[in-house]
Specification:
The chain is 73% helix and 0% strand. The chain is built from seven helices and no strands. The protein is globular. The protein has 115 residues and is an all-alpha fold.
Length: 115
Amino acid sequence: AFATLGVPAPRLFEAIARDTEQRICNFEPQGLANTAWAFATLGVSEPRLFDAIAHASEQRIGTFNTQNLASTAWAFATLGIPDPQLFEAIRQESEERIDTFTAKNLADTAWAFAT
């Protein structure tokens, strides 16, 4: 709700980032993508958190659905966080399943890779 409403909550997001870093191995793909999306929507860049999200995402990229792939790429691109390994994993997985992407997934993914 904070991200959707654009309500800044810096201390809350800092606490979420630190706790998430510790429990990232318990996150499912949707949780990884949603966390990245929320931080990016508010423009909150937490380098250690995004490193953890990238690493966990790379390991599970085959279990991401198309929305997770597009949202993760969008979040990293929105914050200008370069992670070549993550983007390569997203590229490969996206190419294999491109015919299952929605129009929004296609647009978000194209934008992320163009940014």
